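Expect chain and fold; see below:
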Amino acid sequence: MNLERIHNVYFVGIGGIGMSAIANYFKSNGKNVAGYDRVSTKISDALQQQGIAVHFEDSVDLIPSEFKDNQQAIVVYTPAIPKNNLELNYFLEHHFTVLKRSEILEEITRNTFCLAVAGTHGKTTTSTMLGHILKVAGVNATSFLGGISENYKLNLILGGDEIYVVEADEFDRSFLKLSPNIACITSMDADHLDIYGEKTELEKSFKDFADKVSQTLIIRKGLPLNGKTFGIEEDADYDAKNIKVKEGAYIFDVKTPTETIENIKINLPGKHNVLNAVAALAMANIFGAPLQVIAEALLTFKGIERRFSYKIKTADLVLIDDYAHHPTEINAVVDSVREMYPTKKIAGIFQPHLFSRTRDFVDDFAESLSRFDELILLNIYPARELPIEGITSAWLLDKITIDKKQISSKEDLVENVLNLDSQVIVIIGAGDIGELVDIIKKALSHEN
């Protein structure tokens, strides 16, 4: 496919974090872009401010006329779109070129130098760190990110069309469409079992991805793969040592295969972010960025929206927002909060994401959520799924062992949050709970 000859690109599910990055990319490259999504969000608002037409009703009549010519337009969709979507079926029935997000990324990065970050946890932060490092190092790379960078206020770092950084998503085996030159695998914990069925199938998919890497594979020390390793005090090829916490920042040394760089500093909480930083450092260093430049870039890295984002930070009250939606991620958040606020009571507000994920990991969720002092559960966010009988937030709540726990509707959430006793409140989840964060912040701050 020659993308230069395509003038009109239509997105079904344009408001997704990965989809919107590609929409922004095409708009920035002079294409005519439009799309549909189910609900209006901050992301869709930002797209509209860029001059991209977005509508929120699944209606063929609302598709602009210039996108109804199958010779002049291509269509990109997310696998999260239901099979009965009217617009998607219109494009399929009228023989448009219809591509999944992973397939359009395959086309964009074909015959380029591609750096890909994969893993069930850590890939968004690691890829965003890597994109920032390359930008600071003067590398003319374009980075597609799975979150909104606090440095650039976008999920896209624009550069040239010869070097790309991509977040390689294991959902729906999407990352097998890529052909990376340098790749990193941060983790291979069981997830997306609605797609894979068994953990062994997920691991096989990661091994297939590893086989597609043409130059260098970097892996978390201990994963059952062959490649350069990274870790913390694990005698890895890229190994963080002498870790210290000072005024809320991590300071550490990194031993590489050729030298040691001392006193790297990141202004992010949690040892998992030290791991992410070492992974990004390894990728950038193997690509050719000098270690001192990498250290300077990590110092100026501000983080990602909804990744341990402080919304309120005073002596009396702290409100943190995080995307965590898997037990391992929740544990990492709790570890970070306990490390930062060891003497304070901590409350969690969690919206489970997917019926199948809740079913598959219910005992692990119960264990991780029981580490809070207080807990509010919202109902399960369905995303692409239909309900599963018996799989509810009440079922999960019953397995949680702390005394101060409750289920709340979205309508009653603010009132229930105001009645919490904790000095630190953590909002977690990957569904539409992110749309409630500013409302909760205003209520807690007594803003009008």
